[in-house]
Amino acid sequence: MSLRSRVAAALDDALPAGWYPTWRRAVGLGAPVTARNGVGQLMRTTDVVISAALSPAAVVGLGIADLFASLPFRASGGVVGASATLTSQDTGAGADANRDEAFTQAALLAALVTLPFALVGIGLGTEVLRLVGADAESAREGARYLALVSVPMPLGALAAVSSATLEATGDTRTPTYVSVPASVFNAGASLVFGLGLLGAPRLGIVGIGAASLVAMTARSLVLVGYTHLRGPVGFVRPRDPTIARQIVRIGVPQSAAGVVTAVAVFPFNTLVLQFGTAANAGYQLAWRVYTQVLAPVGSGVGRGASIVVGQRLGERAAAAGDDTDGAGGTSEAGSTDGTSEGPAGSRDDPATLPVARMATALVVLGGGVALALGGGVALAAGSIARLLAEDPAVAAAATPFVTVLGLSGVLGITNVVASASLDAAGETRVPLASRVIGMFGGYVGVSWGLYELLGWGIEAAYAGQFACYVLMLAVTAWGLVRTDWVGRATAMLDERGSVGSDG
């Protein structure tokens, strides 16, 4: 027996029944997502570095234009998430026809949501950027970039739904195989044409935008084409209004959660700016570390957890339907909270693990990964800050922010994984409440309250960041324990006819 096999056997024996195979499947599904998101973050970092080499106006213009360009994907993000939820459940239930219907309707809705943003970005970029405070030169530079990246926005929304749908069926590798080369091409083309390397014309911010346009268009066409022609799902004529209503019901809270985050960042940034440019630069550097190191891992493990739980919910509902149609024996599938024991089976079979216990196992996995990664970042905060910041004042300001975000990341990644089970069940209201309470109660409320009422200094910002993640995790944990999210998923499966479906 190999060392790997011995370690796996030891873990399987040491952990509660069903935990290790559940962990193994979630990590296997989530690893490609982590890789893809990490490369995507590197691409965005490359764009920022190139713009800094061009001019201050290019930096400001690109930054503000990127904020606007992210809005359509935040707005359609709920539709994308709803597509993943319904697809994972219907995959587990074997309801292939409903899965195709959900994919088609979500793709159309996502494209329609992003279309107005694309038209504004193409035709009114300068006016929009001036409206949010950019000076004339920055607005002009940013508008040139924004017009280019706005062109493929609706197609990009179709690709986002295609990617999420493939992942929800258990194929997380194909979107990664497509997206990683596209991101690498994007970064390379931005360098070559943005800065005029290798004899290419120096196009500046237009070169960055053109590289993004080509990369996003190619990636989107390949993903959408593969999903429809070779994937397990395909486009059909939309007919079922129940599925459309469920997409909206699941998706609106998810989109709102993204908007909450975007809005809450502004007053927090305003607070940090009270302590000078170095403090703000230190915060931005620390946040870059979080988004480059911690966020991709959290999203990967969370995505894997969501797929595993969603498919298990579908399997459970299908088993309950079979019991109802047959002799009517009792099993785990028949419990309302998903905590009763399933039928006897192999210890290595995750299908024997009740849904609620599966969610618990995944939260423990997320917490362990978060503790190792976030703790490591916190311990190495000083070294990380000195490595990334040339200015000693910025490095000194960044060190405590990196420490706090590393410690907060332990809670943040755990919260992402815990929320994934709720999202997989279609219970997106609790994660929205978690985001609202955490961002406005902690990120904004605690930080500004300590600053204004108690006269704290920059420590108020540190406390607000940590309080944000404490509150978010507390609300999500309450939702997992106290709400009937398993019953909600079963009811939605039954409502759209996925239980007892012939495929």
UniProtKB/TrEMBL annotation:
Keyword Transmembrane helix recorded: yes
Gene Ontology MF annotations: antiporter activity; xenobiotic transmembrane transporter activity
Annotated region described as Disordered, given as residue ranges: 319-351
Low complexity composition bias: residue spans: 332-342
Keyword Transmembrane helix listed: yes
Cellular component GO terms, alphabetical: plasma membrane
Residues of the signal peptide: none
InterPro entries: MATE_fam, MATE_MdtK
Keywords: Membrane, Transmembrane, Transmembrane helix, Transport
Sequence intervals crossing the membrane: 106-125, 145-166, 178-199, 205-229, 362-385, 397-420, 432-451, 463-481
Protein name, as recorded: MATE family efflux transporter
Organism field: Halobaculum magnesiiphilum
